[in-house]
Specification:
There is one protein chain. This protein has 129 residues and is α+β, with helices and mostly antiparallel strands. It has 2 domains: 1-67, ATPase, nucleotide binding domain (Nucleotidyltransferase, domain 5, 2-Layer Sandwich); 70-129, no CATH class. Helices cover 43% and strands 18% of the residues. It is built from 4 helices and 4 strands; from the N terminus they run βββααβαα. The chain has helices spanning 30-33, 43-53, 73-83, 87-115; strands at 2-7, 14-19, 22-28, 62-65. A hairpin with a 6-residue loop joins β1 (2-7) and β2.
Length: 129
């Protein structure tokens, strides 16, 4: 199994590639951009990891994206108290979170169906996800 890990959209973005639990490559984007603590999407780091492994993105079995909603929780809470979001903003954010969750589940289901053998009776097991 090949897993590509992506750390994106905050300082020190990077990518790492594992094959059967063994680290194949790990690269920080600042190596290519020449900008310390680069924050954005690690496009070049991902390409470097894939090239090091001799594979393409379609050969990756799983993509892992770092996310910690509890990071800086006190700072976020203090900001929210100071700037008191409106009820409509809170509803919009909740609806967005639901949409993102549904999209992720749909993408996972599509990937599972795409990997199933043609004519496989179990190919559509995830359609209800």
């Amino acid at each position: 199994m090949v897993i590509l890990g992506i750390n994106a959209y905050h300082g020190d973005v990077a990518a790492a590639l594992l094959r059967d639990g063994e680290l194949v490559a790990a690269v920080e984007e600042e190596r290519f951009r020449r900008i310390k603590h680069y924050a954005g999407f690690p496009r070049d780091a991902i390409q470097s990891c894939l090239a090091s492994a001799g594979i393409e993105a379609r050969d990756v079995d799983a993509f892992a994206v770092s996310r910690d909603p509890n990071a800086h929780l006190w700072r976020k809470a203090l900001f929210a108290l100071r700037h008191r979001p409106s009820a409509s903003l809170i509803r919009d954010r909740a609806a967005n979170a639901t949409s993102v969750r549904h999209l992720a589940q749909s993408c996972f289901a599509a990937r599972v169906r795409a990997r199933a053998a043609p004519g496989d009776a179990n190919a559509d097991w995830s359609a209800g996800v």
